[in-house]
């Protein structure tokens, strides 16, 4: 999927890659919802604020390190059948969220509240 024609926007479910970690399911969030210590962290202009699933860790991730889960699902419609890895459960959860996005709304609100209390 061409990101120039389909830009990444808050609310998108993505696979996001941070240096030293595998790609991991996340949701793009509005920067103003980030915890203060993450919001103030250095980041390049071509980056997006994300919340990793299911642990609710927030980070800035460069656009080049983000893949829309929608694109991944179109390429590989059943992520759950991928080989066994540490991220298989998270990918399975991300697939469920993509198919039923309302199921994650309550969890996201709780994560945001907890992040702002720390």
UniProtKB/TrEMBL annotation:
Residues 10-72 form the PWWP domain. InterPro entries: PWWP_dom. SMART domains: PWWP. It comes from the Eukaryota. Pfam families: PWWP (PF00855). Gene3D superfamilies: 2.30.30.140. This is PWWP domain-containing protein.
């Amino acid at each position: 999927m061409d990101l120039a024609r389909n830009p990444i926007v808050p609310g998108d479910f993505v696979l996001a890659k941070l240096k030293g970690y595998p790609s991991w399911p996340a949701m793009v969030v509005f920067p103003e919802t980030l915890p203060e210590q993450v919001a103030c962290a250095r980041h390049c202009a071509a980056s997006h604020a994300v919340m990793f699933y299911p642990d609710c860790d927030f980070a800035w991730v460069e656009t080049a390190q983000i893949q829309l889960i929608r694109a991944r699902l179109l390429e590989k419609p059943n992520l759950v059948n991928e080989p066994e890895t540490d991220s298989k459960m998270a990918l399975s959860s991300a697939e469920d969220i993509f198919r039923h996005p309302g199921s994650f709304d309550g969890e996201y609100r709780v994560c945001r509240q907890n992040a702002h209390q720390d």
